[in-house]
Amino acid sequence: MSKHHDHSKHDHGKHHAFGIDVGGSGIKGAPVDLSTGEFAADRLRIPTPRGSTPEAVTAVIAELVDSFDLPSDTPVGVAFPAPILHGLVPSIANLDQSWAGVNLDEVVSSALNRRVVGVNDADAAGVGEATYGAARGVDGVVFVATLGTGIGSALLVDGHLVPNTELGHLQIDGHDAESRAAESAKAREDLSWEQWAQRLQRYFETIEYLFSPDLIVVGGGVSKHHEKYLPLLKLRAPIIPATLRNAAGIVGAASLAAGER
Predict the structure, then answer these.
(1) Which CATH number fits domain 134-243: 3.30.420.40, 1.10.10.10, 3.50.50.60, 3.30.390.30?
(2) Nearest CA to 87 among 59, 67, 107?
(3) Averaged pLDDT of the chain
(4) How many Å apart are CA 146 and CA 228, to the nearest integer?
């Protein structure tokens, strides 16, 4: 009985949005059931085209969306590896430089003939965690850090996103923070968990000094080893691992596109 009920909800268009996560190596997409934050169908991944121009990437996005049988009013959210200023991509690092100055929302919306909302990828992951993941239901200031090649950041206040923070690039003790505290720094310098935790302590205590968050959430691939370093940190706010893993960007982008926040 409950299965049938779930299925009927899945068929109800307003409970769905489509999320896309654009990365340097792959472009992933899935329809998201907004009542649960779970994928409504298996995620599909297509390699990022070598010439990752707006035309080429938009064509892949269209292919992803067309692979699913979506109602015409299903909105599309795109998590993108750049700041997004009211739809505009001011600069780009991991894709073709011709993206600079392009309005992502307009270009993709025109290709799909659908409502499209673009968002920075770290912001999308933060919204995913705040809406359906580790920070669900938490009021106040939530700081989400994604530890990887660099440090991605998302800042939310009562569930509302403060977009385009680049707090991995804080200057701390004369260094760009992510050059010392990202997961890549741990690997590059062969740091022990304890040594790396000292770097993270300095980073997160600076975040606390500046923003006094009520909760800190740590994502990125290394979050699955959270028990090796999070307990070593001494902070005022609780610091907990992200729970959505690789789904966070798709889920957060879909949620934003649907105007859930």
Answers:
(1) 3.30.420.40
(2) 107
(3) 94
(4) 16
DSSP 79: E
pLDDT in tens, 161-197: 999 999 999 999 999 999 999 999 999 999 999 999 9
Q: Which residues have a Cβ under 8 Å from the Cβ of 97 and sit 6 or more positions away?
A: none
The amino acid at residue 39 is F
Quote the pLDDT of residue 87.
97
Q: Which helix (H) or strand (E) holds 188?
A: helix 183-188
- What's the CATH code, domain 10-121+248-257? 3.30.420.40
pTM of the predicted model as reported, rounded to 2 decimal places: 0.92
Cβ(48)–Cβ(27) under 8 Å?
yes
Section 96-123 average pLDDT? 97
Distance CA 111, CA 124 (A): 22
> What is the pLDDT at residue 14?
59
